[in-house]
Amino acid sequence: MRPEIAEAYDTRATVSGTTFDDVMAEYRRRSDTAVAHLAGVEGIVYDRPSAQRLDIWGLGDDARPVFFVVHGGYWRMLSRQDTAFMADVLAARGVATVAIDYGLAPATALPEIVRQVRSALTWIYRNGGEHRLDTDRIIVGGSSAGAHLAATTMVPGWQESAGIPQSAVRGGLLLSGLYDLRPLVHAPANEWLYLTNESARAVSPALGTAPSTPTVIALAEREASGFVQQSTDLHQRWSDAADSRLLTVPGRNHFDVFLDLAEPTSELSRALFSLIDSTARTDDAVPTQTVPVTGAHS
């Protein structure tokens, strides 16, 4: 354990215990409210070996673009039921939300978690048409550990063996994430991740080939320093391969910034709308919105 690394990656130290508990409860409360009156399908088993499940919300009569969202929780807590609070906002714009579960650490090793999330993405690409999803318009996203896992679906190199095109993911909204996991070998998180230098490298999307799809790399104003540095570094690495925007959301912390996706006029929601709109075909394109960006951008 290295104290300076432990401090840099201690998200809980950035908020009070009461704030943390309140935000965790708000995830579930707002998710329940968001999906209460939406058409959807719950509990689809997307991966037979692990029996992990996903939900699809905001279905309509037309083929809808997809926001494939992965929950955070430092790879060891939360679920898909805590991660649908944006579903009604997106449904109002004709977009479906896919929220997924994955096995939690320490019972599930991180390489297996990555495999499961990629399996979920593969399932949606192959089977989404049966649920009137436009599988040529998939945007992935997530917060914290969920941003890391969403990023692992964006990088090239795994799609061919899964039988899907490298272009299956059309863009990403990565929020408050970690992308080079090697520092966690020396942080408290390794008490449940059991990473080695080799395994951490293998599951680090920042260390592989950059994707050729647009990305919004976002973070809250109040983040632990390691998360700020990792977002900045990923933006610098990926901006050479494709459009990458680095967005800092003022007045938010590592935990409550994710809830901005439940507000249709928030800067984070506008960034997501812009990514979705960028996938539209020329015959059904809708005007994109200008996305104000705080921080560097390419």
From TrEMBL:
The lineage of its organism: Bacteria, Bacillati, Actinomycetota, Actinomycetes, Mycobacteriales. Its EC number is 3.-.-.-. GO terms for molecular function: hydrolase activity. Keywords: Hydrolase. The keyword Signal does not apply. Residues 63-152 form the BD-FAE-like domain. PANTHER family: AB HYDROLASE SUPERFAMILY PROTEIN C4A8.06C (PTHR48081), KYNURENINE FORMAMIDASE (PTHR48081:SF33). This is Alpha/beta hydrolase.
